[in-house]
Design a protein that fits this description.
Structural class: mainly alpha
Order of helices and strands: HHHHHHHHH
CATH superfamily of the largest domain: Tetracycline Repressor, domain 2
Number of domains: 2
Helix content: over 70%
Distance between the termini: 65 Å
CATH topology of the largest domain: Tetracycline Repressor, domain 2
Length: 199
Amino acid sequence: MPRSTTSEERRQQILQTAATLFAQKGIHETSMDDIVQATGLSKGSLYWYFHNREDLLLTLLQLFLDQELQLLQSVQEQEGPASERLYSMLERYIQQLAQAAHLLPVTLDFYAMATRQEKIRHFFQSYYQRFRLLVKEILQQGLVREEFLPFDPDEISIALIALLEGTTLLGIIEPEHIQLEKHALPACRFLLESLKKPS
């Protein structure tokens, strides 16, 4: 007898289906009816899990951002030289983006929405504040251990994240010319190496 689908499994199915549709058609062109048809659920069932389209969007955005931060946190807690831990963090971040490359166009829609919708903007602000703090904490540890030349960890954390996010944006627009592994990682490595004290 086949195992019945749990409520959480059904919820995750809806989110995965919605993310795929958003990536294919765009957020604004994807309706709740499209999601109903793709999941095979009734409209009533869909609205039982998500009260409206905004509820689904915010849940999906929160899921994306939390997954990234959990990965970064796990690397941040490792041992070793600060520069290597930072590089490992950025490398893992890029690997995760590459695994979800088909969903990256959704990011552009979310960024555009953040300029007009305060809730979306708040999600991104909270995410980047936490991302910067993780990077900054490792940089500060490296400064305390005298692994680095003096610098402002706030400025460098912003620069590293800007390298990643800027290259991601270019890669979405020009995927045939821009790849995160090829362009972002070497730039981050160059910046981190330039901060290290000569051995």
